[in-house]
Amino acid sequence: MILRSRGMADSSGKDSSPSERFRALEVYPGETPRELYVRLKELFSKWVRPEQKSVKEISEMMILEQFLRMVNTEMEVWIKERNPKTAEEAHFSRKLCSSISG
């Protein structure tokens, strides 16, 4: 799963991925610590789907997401268009792009 954008569409979480909502660092007005915990756990499960993936797959997914957050926007879009499944594939795409444009 690759994120659609770097930002959230709005504070309700519409048009954003579970990963983006998980990382939003927003506590809703009146939300108790228990409600915050439950919401984060739910978002994490929707994003990572731990019951369907191995530890290695989850690790690759998280590394890929962070990799995409760290490259410039143009590179991020270029890599996402190639739909890599792992960070290693994204790295190879980035190397390829760099050699083409450089």
Automatic annotation (TrEMBL):
Region described as Disordered: 1-21
Signal peptide interval: none
Matches recorded under InterPro entries: SCAN_dom (IPR003309), SCAN_sf (IPR038269)
Pfam families linked: SCAN
Gene3D superfamilies assigned to the protein according to its UniProt record, in alphabetical order: DNA breaking-rejoining enzymes (1.10.4020.10)
Highest taxon, organism lineage: Eukaryota
Domain SCAN box: 20-90
Name listed for the protein in its UniProt record: SCAN box domain-containing protein
